[in-house]
Structures are given as C-alpha cells and as structure tokens.
Fold these 3 entries.
Entry 1:
Amino acid sequence: MSAPTDAMPRSNRSGWLTPRRTKAILKRVVLYLLLAIVAFFFAGPLYILLSTSFKTMPEIQAGGLMSLPHEPTAQAWVTAWGEACIGITCGGLKGYFGNSMVMAVPAVLISVMIGAINGYALAKWPFPGARFVFAALVAGNFVPFQVVLAPVSVTLRTLGLFGSVEGLILIHVIYGIPITTMLFRNFFLSVPNDLIKAARIDGAGFFWIFFRIVLPLSPSVIVVALILQFTGIWNDFLFAVSFSNPSSAPMTVALNNLVNSNFGVKEYNVHMAATVIAAAPTLILYILLGRYFLRGMTAGAVKG
Amino acid sequence: MIDIRISNCNKNYGSLRVLKDINLEIERSEFIVLLGPSGCGKSTLLHIVAGLDRLSSGAIEIGGRDVTDVEPKDRDIAMVFQSYALYPTMSVRSNMEFGLRMRGKPMSEIRPLVEEKARMLHIDHLLDRRPSQLSGGQRQRVAIGRALVRDPKVFLFDEPLSNLDAKLRASMRTEIKKLHQSLGTTAIYVTHDQLEAMTLATRMVVMKAGEIQQVGKPEEVYHRPVNLFVADFLGNPGMNFMKGHLRLEGGRVSADVGAATIPLDGYAFDTAPTDGQAVVVGLRPESVQPSTGGEPFALTLKPTLIEHTGSDNLVVLAMGGEEIVGKFPSDMLPKLGEPVTVGFDLARLSVFDAQTERRI
C-alpha cells in the first residue's frame, strides 16, 4: 500500500493538517488498526501453539503464555509424533496420522472425480430429469450430518465396514458428492456448448470430451474441490468419532483423546505440537495451492 | 444425385414448434444457404442435420443413408461454428488432428494431411500456437481447416463469419466460395446476412418462424420473391411497396396505387388477376432510375431526402401519401424539392395479394 497521495493536493500545501488531510489519515489509522486486530486474532493462537510446543513443561508451568521459549526443544514434537499415550497405547500420533492420510487421500480423489463427472453430465449432457437430480443433490448439501449418524451406522455394519478406514472413505465420498457436483456443474456451465458439439462431430464420446477437452479447462475448479474436500475430510470429527475404532481412528479423534485425557499431568507442549501436526496438512495444501484456490473462486465472476 | 434429404422434419420444444414440416432435397456439390431472421429455426435445422439436435418427427438422409438416429460422428459431416469452438488447451495442430485421431487414423497419415490443409489456408506458420494467441480471422481459418482435414461428405457452417469485422468477413466469404468451387463438397451454410447468402449460395432457402418460405437460386429469390416476407427481407435498402387495387379493363391489367396507375401488361401472373383485387406492388430501388426518356412508364416525383452511400445516391421520393426509394448513380444528384422524372423498370415488378401476401 502506498501512502494516500490524493490526501495532499497542491493547493493545500500551506496548511499541514487541513481537515481533509486529517480525515484521510484517520481513515487509514482505523483501517490498519482493524486489520491488525483481525491479523492478531488469527495469528495469535498459531503463535501460542508454536511457541508453547517448543517449551519445556517447567517453563510452561512458570507461566508466561505469550513469551518465546527460553530453551527451545523439539522434545514435545518427538513425544507427540511417536511416544504420547493415546488411550491405552503409547505410540504417539503417527499411526493416526497415517490413518487420516489413508482415509483422506482416496476419499478426496474419489469424491472430486465423481463430482466432476456428475457436474459434467448435469451441465453438458442434459437428460430428462436432470434438473430434479441437481435439485436433489443441492438439497443433499443441507442435510445435517447428525441426522444420518444412525442410518449410516446401520449401513456400515450391514456392509461389514463399521470401524474400518474403508467405511470412513465410503461415507466421506458419499457426503462429498453433493458439494463437488455442485461446484463442477456450476463451473462447467461456463464451458461453451459449441466446444462439446465440435468434439462430438469430431468423433469424441462422453469420456473423451471430458478428459481431453473439459478437464484441461478446469484446473482452478479442481483445486478448489480438492482443497474443500481435503479440509473437510481431514478435519471431520463427527463421522470419525462415530464410525472408527481405536485402530482406524483418524487424527482428529486421536488428538481429542490425547488432549482430553484425564490421566497424569497435562502436557501442554505435547498437546500443542500434536495440534500443529494435525493442522499441518491442510495448511500446507492451502499454501501450495492457495493461489489457484483464489483464482478458482473468482473465475466464474470475471469470465461471465 | 441427391446428397441430403430432409423429409417432414418437425422440431418441438414443449409446445413451441421450432420447425414445421420441413422438406428439402440437396444435390451433391450444392452450396445451400439457410437465411432468415433470428429465431426462424435455421440454426436448429442445421443442428438437426448435424445430429446435435434430435428431431421430433421426420427423417434425415445423407448420401442415401437414413441417419435420423445416427450419432454426429458417424454422419460424415464437419461443422464450423460461429464461436470457432477451437479446443482452447490444444495447439492449432492438435485441434486439426483431433478428429482424425478420434477416428483412429495413424499419425503418419494425419501429419502430412494437416500440413497440406494448413498451407492451403495460410495457417501453416501458426500450427504450434494456441487458439488464444490467434486473431479472430486466424481462428476461423483454423476452424475451417479442422473441418477440411476430415474430408467429409458435407460441410455445415453455422454463421461462421458473424464474429468477424466487415472487411475480414468479405475476404473470408470469397475464400469460402473459392474453397467450395475447388472442392465441390456439399455445404449447408446458415446466416442472417443476406449479402453472404446472395454471394455464396448456389441455392438459398429463406425461412421464417420454422417454415421454409422460398427455395431457389439467389437471383430468382431476389427478383421473384414468392411472398411479401421474402421480398421485404432481401435487399438493402428494402423493396418499395405500393398498396393499391387491380383494374381489369378491356383485357388489360393495371394496378391503381393511388398516386399512379401502373400498367401490368407485361407482368407474368402466377394466378389469374381479378378486378378490384387488393394488391401490394413491389419494386426494388435499383429499378427506380432517373428517366432517360425511353421508358414505357415514368413518373415525376419530388425528392424529400437524399442519402449518399458513395457508390449510389439513395433518393427518397414522395409518391402520393407514401414514399419510395430510388437508387440513383452517384453522378445523378437531384435537388431536394425539385421534381425529377423517374422511370420504373416494369420487368422487375412483383405483385402480391394484399390479403394472402403471396405473389400473384
């Protein structure tokens, strides 16, 4: 941001603090103050998380929440990753981190793929009842997950998937389809119909057109779908806590069990390190793909 | 030999009848132009021939084969779109190769074919570029090239020049004409631009509200329009219309249009005229010329407005309570308000029944 040069018209050079100039400066001050508060609001907890995770327990117990660690140590990280006791096992988070990865990656890829194909079919290959199907899918976005817990539980038991990572993948795929379908369908509406027609005349079929022509046009919306789905599935707690068992529990459940454990001293430094580990994948994904994310969110608005 | 036969073709969207019982036979090597105002169904008809739209009833034959239920890719057609519809993520070369690759042709055959057609269209230096790096005219060449390499039985053009500026449009028009003359491939071309229609068509089809109004050679449709709509739609400036009544006296027919009585002795009636019949007499502006003294029919009229187009002067003349337009040569510049004598080219007259609006 450059200085507000327009607040310094040449005719006002004589008086330094003209009313107009004072007003402009005030506006700026208020603006930066607000921004600083918001930035602090979001960055503050992260700062506390990181600084506490590098402290020793005695230092934490001595107080000084906002201070930087005097003798930084990664011990809490090592404990959180490989040694902390979660429930009755003391192997740290690494197993659960693995569970989360094994669950989230396939669930994200499958739900994004299905959403893309659905959206493509709904947007570009209108069939009788397409509007009803789309309306039903949109409605699916508004079903509160609490409502479906019992039926899903019964379904997973019937399928023999209850308590397994596969079961969680299935549920996340199913409940991811409405939002990914909607996302892709709305994006694909902006792909010119003439392209599809030209490709049909050229001899390409449904999937050829999808993979060779439509998908290459859509990197931004694919990234948006990937980030949305990954964040949602990685951070999900309700399905995870309801449908997993101790061996298949994802990060969120393990983190909760670790932090809310009632035995012994609360190891805040380990909890903080564990929290950062749990949040890291979504953060890293966003940092890597964030610019595509922003581009994707505004693409429809600019292109028209 | 008939290449395309459209029989009793109907297309409805719900209760909206977009095409009403269309029948059309197209000979091999014809260049058919579908012309009409927007919403007349010409594009729908083209899409139906392409197989991109299904018809509600009727049949389409291409090359003697019933293709009514055949997929577009199996109809042996190629299409050029108004929006060019080039695949944006592919190079020009890939765009042109795409159709042949889809058909499983080996690359060893595709490469030289694409390069040959690219040279023909002067786009061989653009082969490795993306469509977004090309100008509108270049894009349309690529789109035409993509259709050419396929060597289809029929070319379909959907307003291919409408997105180009006037000058480019004229030169591309000429090129398409040359292309057709050298290849001789049957073509159907949709446009709302009458100049394109007149210059390109071997036969043109004028449509209105889902119905074919007239099919014929451009000059025939221009000079002998079958109804008032066609007469009015073609020509710029439009045809002069004079309302009046027929008079039959002593075996001679004439039209009383109020300000004058126009003799119709030489007029070839399609239907027998009746005395007192309400008619509209049509005459194109170029058939209203300054008199040289020798015309069988001339009137002296007052000019009320003159428009210079460069090549001609369009002179608006007061005739009774109405106005007619004459297309004068650019060196003939009458003065406003000073009566001029204009000759009517009676051989170019069109007479329509005022009720049915049909040519009589």
Entry 2:
Amino acid sequence: MTESMTATAAVTEPAAGPTGRERAFGLIQRHGAAAVLVLLVAIGSFAFDRFPTGANLGNIAITSSFLAMVALGMTFVIITGGIDLSVGSVFALGGVLAAYAVRWGSLAALLLPLVVCGAFGLVQGLLIARVRLAPFIVTLAGLLGARGLLLSISGEGSTTYLIPHGALIARVGQGSVFGIGYPVYLTLALFVAGAVLLQRTRFGQCVYAIGGSEDAAELMGVPVTRTKVAVYVMSGLLAGLAGTLNAARLSSGVTILGTGMELDVIAAVVIGGTLLTGGAGSVSGTVAGVLLLGVIQNLINQIGDLSSSYQQVVSGAFLAAVVVVQTYLSRVQRLR
Amino acid sequence: MTDTAAVPVSRLDRGRLLAWLQDYGVYAAIAALVLVNIAITPRFLSLENLRTQLVQVAPVVIVSLGMALVIGTEGVDLSVGSVMALTAALIPLYLGYGVVPAVVAGLLGGVAVGLVNGSLVAFVGVQPIVATLALFVGGRGIALVVAGGQLKDIHDQTLLDLGSSSMLGVPLPVVVAVVLTVVVMAVVRRTTFGRRLVAIGGNRTASELSGLPVRRVLLLVYVMSGLLAAVAGTLATARLQASDPSSLGLLMELSAITAVVVGGTPLTGGRVRVLGTVAGALLIQLVRATLIKHDLADSVAQMVQAVIILAAVYAARGAGRR
C-alpha cells in the first residue's frame, strides 16, 4: 500500500518527497530526543563506571523531577501557542510559601502554595485569554510580580523559612522507595495523567486545536478562553507543586531558586519536539527533553575536571542543533 | 485583536485615550514621578544623585536600543545579558595587548553572537525566541569557560576611565548612551535600512514579495543588538572595575524588553520608538530609585514594575495597534 501511494504521489506531485522519508522526518521530530537520550546513556555507561549505578541514576531522576513537573505544565502552554515565563519565580514562590505555611501543619504547607500559585496562573490566564494581552508580556510581568511577592514574604530574601525534619511534608520530599525518591513517582504519575489528558480527552484536543489555529478553533466552537485559562492555571499549579516538593527536599524555602529556570524549562520542552509555534508536541517528548538535559549535566560532572560552565555550553549548543533540525523538518513537512 | 470590527463611539474615545497613553504615557509618567520626587525626596535634584542615576541606567539604555530594533522586526533577543558576560570575559584576555585590542575583542564577541542569532533567525528560519535562547544558555557558559569561572580585577587605568571619567561634567557612559541613541534614531528614521526594518516587522511576507533583502536586514539587526549589548558590557565592566562573567548582565534581557514595551514599541513589530525606549528605561530606573530612596523594598519595586508593564501593553492593545 505504501508503495502504491508513493507511486501516485510521485506522479502527481514530483516535488514531494516519498512518504517513507516524510515519515522518517516525523519520527525524528517526535522521538529524536529519546533516541539521543538512549545513545547518551549507552555512551555514558561504557565510559564511566560510576554513571550506570543505581545511586547515580536515582540522583538524575530526583534532580530532574522538579524541572519535569514544571515542564509538563509548560508543554500544555506551548502547545496552545503560548509561553509562560513566570514559572521560575512561581517555583521559588511555591517553595517559600510551603516553608512559611509549615507552621500550620503539612497540609497547609501543601495547600497554600497550590492555592496561591494556582491563583497566580488564573490571573495570568485571564489576562491572556480574556483581555487578550500577549502571553510573553503577561508572564514576564508575572515573573517580576511573583518574585516580588516572594521577597516581600521572606523579608526581602533575608529570612529563609525552614521545614522541620519531622514534618510529614519533609518526609514526602526526602523519602524514597527502591532508592528512588517519592517526588519521582509523583512526577511519573503526573506525566501519565498529563499524557492521557492531552491525547485522550476533549480538553487535550482543544489544546491542540487552539495551537493549530486559534481562529479556526474559535469558529469550530472550541471553548478557547476556558481552555487557555486552564493551561495557565495548570502551569502555575505544577510550578508551585514542584517548588513545594523541592523545598520539602531541601528542608527550606530557598528564595534565590528558580532564576532563569523558565528558559531551562522551555529548552527542555523544545528539545522534546514540541513546536513553539503551537499545535504540535507531546508529553513523552518533554520527559526525554528533561532527562536529556539531566544526563548531559550528570555526564559533565562525571568528567570531573571540566568546569560546570561546560554544561551551559553543551546545553546551548544542543538546543541550537535541535531547533535547526526541527525547523528544517517542519519546513520539509510543510512543503508537501 | 478581533473586537475592533464594530467599535461604538464611546469606545473610540477610550481608544484615542489609550493611543495617547501608548505614545506619551511614558513621558507623562516620568514627568509625574520627577515632580513627586522633587516634592518628597531630599536632594533629588542634586547633581550627584542625577549622575548616579544616569550612570546606572546607561547600560540598560544601550542594550534596550538594540532590543528595540529587534522587537521592531517582530523578534526578540534573549541573549543580550550573556553577550555582556562574554564581553566582560573577553576583555581581560586581551588587555595585555592594550585597551583598544581588548575592547575590540569584547565587541567582536557581541558581533559573533549577533551573527549566530541572526543566521538562525534569517537563514534557518528559527523563531527568534528559541534562536536567542540557545545563546542565552550557551553564551554565559562560553563566557565562564573563557574566564575560567573567575572574577578578575581590572587595573588598566585607560579602561577604567571609560567607566568613571566625565566629558564636560557628563559621565562618559551617559555620553556614549546619548550618542548611540542619536545614531540609532537616525538609522531608524533616515536610512533605507531603518525603513526596511520597520517594513519587515510590519509584514515579513509582503516585504519578501516586494523584493526587500529581508534576510540581510534581519541578520544586521541581530548583529547590531549584539554589538550594542557588547558596548554596554564594556562600559559596565569598566564601571565595576572587574570582569564578572558569572553575574554581569543577569536579567538584562528582561529589563531591556520592559523598557522597549513600556516605551510604546509593540511586540508585534512594525514600529520602533527609540526615544520612547530610552524613556522606558529611565522610567523603570526612576521607579526603582524612588522606592529604594523611601525604604520601600526591592519586592515592591518589582511588583510595581510588573504593573507598569501590564499597563503599557494594555494601553498598546486598547489603542488597536495590534
């Protein structure tokens, strides 16, 4: 069947590439990050004795899990064609709020950050979807606003609230089963839920439709405003949750965390094959993107005498390579 | 965006008000703040205070000029802070050969980053935000690798003079900022390049179809942004009396974007407001200085800045210029 299709395509549209090639491009776009990840892990396992140990892999998993949670929300936002620059500040805000609220118990330490960060996402979402301001600008203001809020809670960053070791939330952040921290399992569960939400529900289809063409989606009767508000609320909630768990793991609400995190998160999502133009992307790609950044960082640490600045160089170069390939691929696909 | 089709009369007036706010709001806000400060801040008009404020804002103004050009083409340049770091890292390496080679090397670093950004945007067709994100991440890494991750003190007196000497009583960084503002304004208003830049921002496809050298112009715009950021990095390094690639220019991209947007340049491109951009940078500096002088903390300053940004884009949107 494929061959007959190729033949007709060749007759009617000589300029178009064979379907096999196109499908290969599509595969690279969607699973390129995963393939490179497997390759890197294989190389790392051969080259460094200490790389493939359970402790080290568990370490990669736990350090990546917080970035991954934030990246999950960002994936939804980017697929709608938006962007959320506020996540780094909201992440830090979540951590500080959790450490602040732990005096009223662990439940409060979990709920307060979620409520505040969710509300933060709601305000941003309303400004973007209802008032129709540009997402880039609204969330840029959000970045400053959340950081300001955080500083005002923490006495201009001079007070670092601590989470006592006995607290339930500290045990959630620090505990582990089979050498893998609880936050990793939670992240996995969230990603499964996220994948189902994106691929198998009406809401997910709306997210894709809005990213593909907002006007067309509106005309088809997709609840554009509601869906867009929802993705920014999700992004705020996930960033707040990640910040909370990170604070629980560190036993304190560190105020300076999360600066520049938004760009790492965007990089991970883009490396995972989600297009910044919206309308295309996947949750599984984001997992691969986040892990890829984590593995690169870990491998550079393994090399030892290399300074950690090389990590930024490699990540930047990698990002550049990915976007060049992606742009090329999507252009080839558009030429069909 | 879509609700402009049937505008009732009352909304037209509001639209005109918002349009006025977009164009002149930033100047009005500066005037108001200056008056308030004269009333409540002791020694606000002292020469010393004015000098300090202007020297502090000079690098932001210079970077914002480049950012305004990029945003005029419907792009954005996130790498400016990393360019400043790279310049800071390169200067001490070549200081042994003299000040001129050192500064030239620093500026070339900015040009190189601009070339990479511009090529990605113009020739490969990558979205500006991702293209410049790569060097935002990588640029500072390169700077740290070049500098060995260390802060280096600078003792060369000629270079230090760049940051601290004055011309006719005006600090040199401020002179440089003023000169560059005039140059950029002339480029935007009086040259073919400026016309093309605005045209491309307004409608890239139409510009391509009408035969404009879109790619060349875009490349040049990003090179200019890199170069201007490098100038700012040089001045800031001279002012600091040290090369500090790990923290110089952090968050500069956000300050610059804020200045441009507050100054009335729409993010959708097609319009460059050079004086507005300078005013935007001054306004943010003024807000910060006012709040800090009156012991209102940095947190409040940041939140106020957020509100100003939102107000600026709201005015821009309401003006129907999208």
Entry 3:
Amino acid sequence: MFLNTATIILFIIGLYWSLVIAPADYQQGDVYRIIFIHVPAAWLSMAVYVIMAVAGTVTLIWRAKIAEIICVQAAPVGLSFTVIALVTGMLWGKPTWGTYWVWDARLTSELILLFLYIGVVGLYKSISDARSAARACSILSIVGVVNIPIIHFSVNWWNTLHQGATVTKLSAPSAHSSMLYPLLFMGCTFFIYFVTILFIRSRSDILKRERGKQWVQEIFNEF
Amino acid sequence: MFFMMLVKQDFLLIFRRKSDILYPLFFYFLVLILFPLGISADSQLLKEIGAGVIWIVSLLATLITLNELFSRDFHDGTMEQFVISGYSLEIFLTTKILTRWLTTALPLVLASPFVGIVFNMPLNAIFVLFISLILGTPIFYFIGAIGSSLTVGLKRGGLLLPSIVMPLYIPTIVFGSSAVHAAVYDSSYNGQLAILGAMLILSVTIAPFAIAASIRTSME
Amino acid sequence: MIKKLTPNVNAQLLSCTRGNKVLYSNVNFTLEPGDAIQIQGPNGCGKTSLLKQFCQIIPTYNGEIFIDDVPVRSVKQEFFSLLLYTGHSPAIKKDLTCFENIQYMGLLDGIFDENLLEENLEHLSLSKSRDTLGSDLSRGQSQKTALSRLFFTKRPVWVLDEPFSGLDLSSISVIKKILAKHIQEKNILLITSHENIEIPGVAFKNLEID
C-alpha cells in the first residue's frame, strides 16, 4: 500500500518538475521534455534486464521460489519499458532531427534489447509448467546478460563504421543542472514504479501458484 | 573408445538422412542467386553488398538446421537416456553440435569461394571470407544450440527459436561481414578476425553448459 | 559418495503437480538391495511421473530422495551411472537398425564388443530383425530391442515403465526370468503396471497411487 501511494506522489512531483519547472532547452524548445520519460525508461529497461538475470542466477543456484517469481515477473515490465523508450525516442526524433528512426548505436542497442525481452517473455508463455518455465527463462536471461556487453560493443563499433560525422548531432545534450535533477528524479520515480509493479505482479503470481493451499483459501473467504 | 563410438554413431545418424545435409546447401545457393536477380547484377553493387549478403545467407542456412538439431533425439527418448546415463551431457551435446557443423556448415564454407567469385570479390577477400566463415559458423551453431535446446520441447518452438537466437548472433554478423567488407576494400581486417576467434573460443567453452542446462529444463 | 555397489534408496514425501492438478503427494518408499516395488494405479494417475522423479528427470521440488542416506542431488552423476531406465515408449532411433540401436545402448553401458551384443539378440528372438531399420520395426519388436539392454547391463538399479506392454507371451516369460535373476543377485527393481504382476522368485512390495 505504501509503495502505491509513494509511486503516485513521486510521479506527480516528477512530472510537474520536469514538464513545468525545468527551463526550455535553447535548441529544441519544449519538445525535449520527452527525454524525461525516454531516458529513465531506457535506463530502467537495461537495469531490469540485469535484475532479471540476477534473479535468474539465484533461481538456478539456490532454487528459491521468490527468485523465480521476480525473474519471470520482471520480464514483461522490462519489455514495456523498452517499448516506451523506443517509442518516445521515435517521437523525439521526428521533430528534432526530421526522422523517426536512425541507425545509431543507442537506438539499435535498444532495439536488440527489445528482442532479447521478447525472447524471454515468449519462452515463459510457451512452457506450460510454471517452474520449468521459470528455470528456462533464468537460463535465457543469464545468456542474454552475458551477451549484452558483447552486443553493445559490437553495435558501437559497427556504428563508427557507418555513421562518422553525424554522431555528435545525435548524442545526448550536455545537461544543465536544472535539467539533470528532474531527470535523475524521474529515474528514481521510474524505479519505484518498477518495484511497485513488481510487487503487485509477484503477489498475484504467488496467489495463483499457491491457490490450492489453505492460507490462500482463507484470504479469499474473507471477501 | 567411448568418445570414438559416440562420434561414429552421430555421423551414422546424420548420413542416414542425407536430406539434412543437402537441404541447407540448396537453400544457400538458391537464396544467394536471388540477390543479384532481385536487386541488380551491377558488379560494383555486388562487390559492396557481397560480404554482408553471404554472411546473412550463411546465418539463415544454419538457422534452418537448428530446429532439427536436438529434436529427433529428444522426441524418440534417446536424449533422456543420455541425460541419465551418468556420462557428461555437455560432452555429448558438444559432439553432436560439432558433427552437425562438420556435415552441414562445412560444405557451405567450402562453397563460399565460388560464391565470392560470383559476387566479384578480389582474391584476398575470398580468402578472408573463407576464414571468417570457418570461425563464424561454429559460433552460429553453438549459440543457436542454446536456443534449440530451450525450445526443443515446445509445440511451436520453431517460431520462438529465431527470436531467441537473433540478438545473440548480431556480434558475430557484425564482425564477420565487416572483416570481409574491409578485405574487399583493402582495409585491415585482422582485428575483426581476432575478435571472431575470441568469440568462437568463448562460445565453445561456455555454451555447452547453458545447452546442457536447457536440455535438462526442457525435459521437465 | 555412494559406498556400496547396490545402494539403499529411500524416497520421502514425493509429490508432483502437473498444471493445476496434484498428481500425487506424500509418497514414501524404501528400496534395499534385493527389493522390488511394483507401482500400480489407473491410467494418468502419475506412475510415469513418479518414475521420472525417481530418476531425477523431473526435479523433486518437495520431498527428497536419499541414496545411502545422502541426498541424491549431491551424488547425481554417480546415481545416474547405477541407473537403468526404460520409458513408456521404447527409446529407439528410427534411423538405425535394430542391432545398431543395441550397439548404441551398449555404448551407454560401456560394452563395445560386438560379439557379446550379438549373442543378446537371441534372448528375445531378434536375430531376424537384426538389420531392420527402427522405423520398420513393430511396436513389440521396438520394445524388445529396448529391453535387450537388460541382458548385458551391469547397472544395479532398474526402473522400468510398463515393461511388458506390447510383448508376446514367450518374451514376457523371458523378461520375467531376467527380472527374477536381477533380484536374486541383490539388485533393485522398480516397475509400473496396470495389473498385478507375479514373478516367481520375486516378492513385490506394492505401491498404489490413486
């Protein structure tokens, strides 16, 4: 309960701060404000994958049910963060640089991350037994997290071959503190949001898994 | 002795189904022919896109064989027997992957010089093409086997396999095709080949553990 | 470390859930050298799942299996080297001939001598089907090919899932004799069946699952 209210309050503060108080960027006007959603979403999409992989390692080594649940329920959330990052990135790109998509290193890496997430979520949905599915997703997320630095390195390298001079146009603007602080604040807000959603999802997953047990029946009988 | 018999059995199994060997080879040639036909046979264009095209078609040809890699053994019960045999599952699976690579991918790699000529590549580029494919195709097999072993028990696993495996293939494709591309235009390619070699060593040593773990999970 | 050649096996509180259904729970049994257990129950009650859990193909999330009082998880590969499991459908490669399949099984048991393997064809009258491809064997012949492993293996723990299904009467009596010999040599046997199986010389403990 506490987390729910905390999330809502933080979101209200964060959005007000970023949308109203932070000054308009001299180059891009008000459009740039979308980075307050875009950048935290991108940060979270990567952080959630790492969290998922750590939970996956715990699942495989210690077979803890909680780790299984965290690994499996974090995946769709991370997937949606990646989608938000990509879509907001595209919406930002059109007014600022004239094109929806550009094959730069960061966007391409984010797109690949999207496919890594789709693989994990798709795998979970295809296996009928929940515990085996969790183990399979744990293996896949560990394989993914090991590959992410390699993929990132190769995409960056590939980008230097094909982009050259246009890199500077697409790099993140150097942030003035009045923009940096709301950005960091939104980052924390997104993280708290992630934790809240994870708790909600995990709770319903636990209820679903244990529904034969007595303590669950008692909870439902109370309604 | 055990190891030799295992390898002999694997080869026996593969050669009993010759279509498994020929199908990827035909696929490889047919799709490669489509590129000049579908885009343009301009020799400059072919020279420019040749490296990437050959690499991509090699990837696709190995991808279509990945589905079948463990599927037959899994479904007729012999994979189960090996899991509980007391022998190392990692070694068994690695042997299987290597024999499959030797019979299915090696013909493609051996055919690549001819394809290189068709795509107007200079001689040194063809040499680099050959080396890069020899290094890269086993990487495709080992990483692909991870996806294959995760989806082997699924009813529609064939759809999920490419989406699991594609992101993991990207570094190999990037470095492989750029090595050849650099050779075509007389730039340095040794760095790319070295990285490819490193990725090969990494995948051969680490992937078997993930593959064995995935097979055990798929059996549940 | 597993000390003896034939171990004591103690299974406690095994349970299995498939999807939403609990197949069985709180299953306990003990097997000492020379013991044989027959698991009985109707179709779909979980006999095969129990055997697979015993063989650690399906993991034991609840409950534990002890091999010589050591949890099986810590001695898994050693346990596997003592184990022989035949599943519900015979594990036969369709692309290999009957004899090549037997060679493959000999590989798993560390037997490479072809003559030794050839001798075993006679036990279940498989000599005529020696060079028939697995895909052309009848179900009974496939089952016999899979079971011919029993005649040359040295593994002490046998776990057989409905071994007699699809077999003709003479093969059934040959198999019963080899199972009796196995028990007399102080090994362990775990089988499933639909109906009560009687083997002269073997005192079965029965385990019913409902």
